[in-house]
Amino acid sequence: MNKLLFICSRNQWRSLTAEKIFEHLEGYQVRSAGTEENARIKVTAGHIGWADIIFVMEKKHKRKIQSKFNEELIGKTIICLNIPDDYGFMDEELIGLLESSVSEYIEIT
Fold first, then answer.
1. Around Cβ 25, how many Cβ atoms within 10 Å?
2. Would you tell me how many other CB atoms lie within 10 Å of the CB of residue 66?
3. Are 8 and 15 in contact (CB under 8 A)?
4. What are the tens digits of pLDDT across the range 42-58?
5. Phi then psi for 9, rounded to 5 degrees?
6. CA neighbours within 13 Å on the CB side: how many for 92?
């Protein structure tokens, strides 16, 4: 079972949408978290250790987790989806972007 972790800033819109739309994929477990102090669920070393693939929404998220969890990230795959903070939770355009971006790395059918 592959474990996918989606990370954005506050874990309210982008990463939470990703968790909701991909949580029913067969063969995958999915979680989401945020990098900010006021995140709904703040990313921890436990999240990083749990994940097989980490999807970040922006380069700044990758930099933040690399500076905070450098040891835990050894051997982990981090993919930046380059999705800006321009969308609300379950926004149709955001769902389309997530599906097309993530499908380049895993099978989402």
1. 16
2. 12
3. yes
4. 999 999 999 999 999 99
5. -80, -60
6. 0
Structure tokens at 5: 């972790």
Helix H or strand E segment including 95: helix 92-102
Q: Look up residue 57 and give its amino acid.
A: M
- Residue 79 is encoded by which pair of tokens? 């993919």
Strand 53-56 to 28-34 pairing: unpaired
Cα three-residue angle 81-6-69, rounded to 5 degrees: 100
pLDDT (0 to 100) of residue 109:
72
Note whether 40 and 46 are within 8 A (CB). no
In this predicted model, what pLDDT tens digit does every residue of 69-107 receive, in sequence order?
999 999 999 999 999 999 999 999 999 999 999 999 999
What is the pLDDT, as a whole number, of residue 105? Answer: 96
